[in-house]
Request: fold
Amino acid sequence: MAGNTDELLCEDLPTNPRADMGTVLVAGATGYIGGRLVPELIARGYKVRIMVRAESPVHAERWPEAEMVVADALVKDEVDTALEGIDTAYYLIHSMLIGLHKFEDADTLAARNFRMAAEECNVQRIIYLGGLGDAQTTLSTHLASRAMVAEEFSQGTVPTTILRAAIIIGSGSASYEMINHLVRRIPVFPVPSWAKTKCQPIGLRDVIKSLVGVMELPETAGRTFDIGGTDILTYEDMLKLHSEVLGKKKIFMPSPVSSISFYSYITSLLTPVPAAITWCLMESVTHDVICHEDDIIDLIPFRRISCKEALVLALSREDQDSVATRWSDSYPPDYELAIKLSEIEGPPTYTSSYSLITDKTSEKLFKSITHIGGRNGWFHSTFLWRIRGAIDRLLRGVGTTRGRRSASRLRVNDVVDFWRVEEIRQNEQLLLRAEMKVPGYAWLEFRVDTVSGDKSRLSVNAYYKTKGFWGRTYWYIFLPFHHFIFDNLIKQIERSSR
Ligand SMILES: NC(=O)c1ccc[n+]([C@@H]2O[C@H](COP(=O)([O-])OP(=O)(O)OC[C@H]3O[C@@H](n4cnc5c(N)ncnc54)[C@H](OP(=O)(O)O)[C@@H]3O)[C@@H](O)[C@H]2O)c1
Reply:
């Protein structure tokens, strides 16, 4: 199901793969950047170990050549195991998504554990991608935590290379999706005072090349480099450039309102990116984030792309439905929600099942099922799913606008609107776990079973686990809708399975 969407980006890198290099660890391999780095390292012949928090068959499916270690950076013993026998370790972890007031402590602890374990395991180098931002000014919580991680590694004895980047423009990046959706949806842009702040966006491919390039250049050990694209733009310029690339005319007018909370909330309502992320990213818009030096350009000379080129490349990846990683890949709105159906104590409190018998093949039925959600809609009553999503958004939940990474392919952990793929068994089962705000835990399962030689049973099962009064009330309020929605849903899936 994964489908190979990994396009190699480092082919014109002037550095050469290092034959002397031992195993390379990628911590944060499930993330947006880590997921793009791993295939590059494998393609260049490195022995790669990926560090993940949860074991999943999808990792082995995506990167069969990589060794996998399960470790939480907050647990020192687990990090020790992950770093044993490692030559160079990429640190691409951040905890931003666990909540505004919790992530700083988690980031500090994770970085400290990693630094100490790297020292004990005699790791030769750490490579860390952090954020740009002038340490002399008051940084946002997010940027301050990135700087703190850099500081932690700098104080250790393992030579560390620190790369500092501002906005990364690439298909699937949160910043890109925020701008893209705003430009597609809003005809008139209010321009608050902070829209004149400068930033230096960088194309995703240039970030990946820099990450690989510094590893292949031993003299970059122990140094910090600012990395950026060829343009310094204001946020207003970026919106204008994006509008031009999409061929859309927009009106820009000064706005007396400059509250960042207000704009980040509106952005979360109008784009797939939830409030927790829009806030973290926008909190720093009042500070210029530009490179203060460009030493890396002489050390690793490759052609840096402009913001416009990065936008065009990102848009074309979307058009080709070949987005390899997305910000939503590692979005845990609340870790409790990650409880799997197979892990709950006892049976679900409520189950509701609908099925039909058809002579369509399991392959055809399953293909239809895997197209569910996102831009494709929900086969029937899509507007009701959208209303539920809008309510969730108002409650600061994830809503349905997160869409999907790919319109045609699904893999374990992919987001499907306000669901996340928990399990896929080809032509048999798709199990989705609810990530919207519900007073309990909910799953939606699609199954295809062969009932006799040429007949299949297509079914949809809703499972719900709750204890409290409100949880039970919620189930009974939605029960009448279940029949209407699910019955029509499976009929429509069956019809569209051609
Ligand atoms: N993306 C950008 O636009 C951007 C821009 C500038 C700089 N950067 C920097 O680049 C780095 C990577 O960013 P990203 O966008 O790839 O992040 P991301 O998509 O949010 O991924 C974060 C990664 O960290 C892992 N992680 C979080 N807490 C962990 C823990 N306790 N133990 C082990 N792993 C943990 C996550 O694993 P799970 O899947 O298990 O959650 C995930 O793999 C960050 O330092 C970021 O500041 C990114």
Notes: The CA atoms of residues 167 and 201 lie 5 Å apart. The pocket of NAP is lined by residues 28, 30-34, 53, 72-74, 92-95, 110, 129-131, 146, 165, 168, 173, 175, 327, 330, 332 (CB under 6 Å). Residues 469-496 form the longest helix (28 residues). The chain has a mean pLDDT of 91.
